[in-house]
Amino acid sequence: MGEIIFSQLEFIRGQTLKIAQDLSEEQADIIPAKFRNNIRWNLGHIAFVQDAFAFQLNGRPSLISAQYRSFFANGTSPENWTEDVPRLADIVEVLEQQPKQIASILPGKLDERVSKPYTTSSGFTLDTIEGFLNFTLYHEGMHFSVIKMYKKLIQS
């Protein structure tokens, strides 16, 4: 696939940002009935996972605040938040910057093997930077769909 991944990351992220652009802080915090997360969590989770997969899991330092792990990692939920979470505008800023950061730090490194391969919850093993980045496209698409559905539910 090669370096086209950087353009794909930028494109997919643009779609995510577009769907989130008209949300208020209040709308971002609504947890639709029978669900456990909200739009703010989904956006923060996208940022957290992309940072982890692009940088942390291949031995590079994280480019986001450490607090993202406690708020947005797998298994977390706004129902359990006890501290102030990042503002929606701050999460959006992180989301805007990530594709550019990835494209500036990782060119020529896509074939690098990671020291510790990662197996997703669905049983797929990732062992190169390119594999990790490709997986984030799928991951973000799943959460994009959830955000789109949540928007319809809270705006109807």
UniProtKB/TrEMBL annotation:
Pfam families in alphabetical order: DinB_2
Domain of life (superkingdom): Bacteria
Residue intervals of the DinB-like domain: 8-147
TM spans (from-to): none
Protein name according to UniProt: DinB-like domain-containing protein
